[in-house]
């Protein structure tokens, strides 16, 4: 589908409005805000994370701490350093506020109702962008697009997503880069991550982002 300049301007206005509305969201009483979103960039590639942590809430920037450092270190050899990635690729998430701490350790996993209430934000971004490549990061994000029983069944593969509106996108899942995770540091995770990154590097949508004018 060929997009006109008018269409692009209209989608940009709508994305800006969606993010402005997101900033006012207070729908989940157990979630700790304010809600976080990336730069409002129209991109053929969209990354979907799980939920922000305390640092992301403080800085109002997704993937801005330890997990982000690991994530952007994965992408740097593919041609995009962190500042350029943030300028050219929209970073979304399943939930946009911090879920709080789990009494047993680590961050609390958002519950089903919180995930459902927050779905409108990432799906709104998805429909405005209609990206050619989706990068879900972590099992919670992957599960919003694909059935996933085990990470090793989907990481390292290029899969397909068909939106309710009928358009399609390729999906290349990634593990979550959390410092608490060892999955991507051990086999088969290490090899499967390398395979996934190679698929991303070769994808035409990624190449178009690399070649975008500054």
From TrEMBL:
UniProt source species: Allochromatium warmingii (Chromatium warmingii)
Domain Uracil-DNA glycosylase-like: 37-197
Protein name: Uracil-DNA glycosylase
Example of a GO MF term: deaminated base DNA N-glycosylase activity
Entry superkingdom: Bacteria
UniProt cross-references to SUPFAM superfamilies, sorted A to Z: Uracil-DNA glycosylase-like
Upper taxonomic lineage: Bacteria, Pseudomonadati, Pseudomonadota, Gammaproteobacteria, Chromatiales
Classification via Gene3D superfamilies: Uracil-DNA glycosylase-like domain
GO BP, one annotated term: DNA repair
Pfam families hit by this protein: UDG
Keywords: 4Fe-4S, DNA damage, DNA repair, Hydrolase, Iron, Iron-sulfur, Metal-binding
């Amino acid at each position: 589908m060929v997009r006109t300049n008018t269409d692009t301007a209209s989608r940009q206005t709508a994305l800006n409005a969606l993010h402005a509305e997101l900033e006012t969201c207070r729908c989940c009483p157990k979630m700790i805000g304010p809600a976080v979103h990336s730069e409002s960039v129209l991109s053929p590639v969209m990354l979907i994370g799980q939920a922000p942590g305390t640092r992301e809430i403080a800085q109002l920037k997704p993937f801005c701490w330890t997990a982000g450092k690991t994530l952007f270190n994965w992408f740097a050899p593919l041609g995009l350093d962190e500042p350029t990635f943030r300028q050219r690729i929209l970073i979304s998430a399943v939930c946009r506020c911090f879920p709080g701490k789990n009494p047993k350790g680590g961050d609390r996993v958002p519950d089903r109702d919180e995930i459902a209430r927050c779905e409108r934000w990432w799906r709104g971004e998805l429909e405005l962008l209609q990206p050619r490549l989706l990068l879900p990061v972590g099992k919670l994000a992957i599960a919003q697009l694909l059935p996933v029983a085990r990470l090793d069944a989907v990481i390292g593969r290029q899969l397909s997503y068909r939106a309710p509106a009928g358009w399609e996108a390729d999906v290349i899942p990634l593990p979550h880069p959390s410092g608490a995770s060892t999955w991507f540091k051990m086999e088969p995770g290490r090899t499967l991550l390398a395979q996934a990154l190679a698929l991303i590097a070769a994808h035409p949508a990624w190449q178009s982002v690399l070649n975008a004018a500054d």
